[in-house]
Amino acid sequence: MTNREIRRRIVSVQETVKITKAMYSISMAKMIAAKAALPAATEYRDVCARIIRAVSASFPNDIFFSKRGDRTGFLVIAADKGLCGDHNAQIIECAKTAVDGIEERYIFTVGNVAHESFTKAGYEVDMEYLRASTSYSAAAAITDDMMFLYENDMLDEIKVVYTDAGKNVVTVDTLLPIEAGQEKVETEPFTASALHHCVRDHLIATLRYMLMSSSLAEHTARARIMSQSTDNAEEMIGELTAKYNRARQESITRALQDGRVTDSVL
Predict the structure, then answer these.
(1) Residues with Cβ < 8 Å from 20, sequence gap 6 or more?
(2) How do strand 127-129 and strand 157-164 relate by DSSP bridges?
(3) pLDDT tens digit sequence for 6-52
(4) Least packed by Cβ within 10 Å: which of 42, 43, 99, 180?
(5) How much is the pTM?
(6) Is the peptide bond before 177 cis (omega within 30 degrees of 0)?
């Protein structure tokens, strides 16, 4: 490699460092925001879970609290893009393991990466949500679709594959049916409509927590990878600079020995 090629390589890597540093800053900002918002989502989920457990004890045979058959839907939550290490790969691998064990299964993906990965692997994706949003409206829209399929006897069980940011592991949790509480609580008489709304609120809170947890894990992984990429690139710049200086010194030494130092050499 000539001195000119080394200089070009140094400039190229320096441009890469600018990109990785910018991506690190963006990911860190998103990670901090997601980390700050997660406790409130966790608390709301827990409150809704306590309410639904208390209510469900009075309705043990309701469809929302009882297992029917083996038709299982898998909601797989991944990222909208890559550049976050093995974050997406772990989710897809876990989801494929869970899906392959079910004879009658349906796949619902959240995020571009999940949809593309399953499609390329030859799986049929039955429903896709191309943007992994963590908003309440996004969680509500997905919840309404899942409840419609469940209530109309199209599915017997719905599981969610996502990254639990607190444990930093990919997990598979059951969204429906809901595990009924064992201890009855005295409440005002519940109508079918009131029970439906109570279940919906619980599922939205649970699903929104899963979406936010996955988002936090994604941004954390991307910030870590961008930091490592920046460090590796800066190390490469140091090695290339040292190589350039050695080559330049050798050129000057040879020129001095030949008695022909020129501006082009310097």
Answers:
(1) 226, 229, 230, 233
(2) unpaired
(3) 889 999 999 999 999 999 999 999 999 999 999 999 999 999 998 88
(4) 43
(5) 0.86
(6) yes
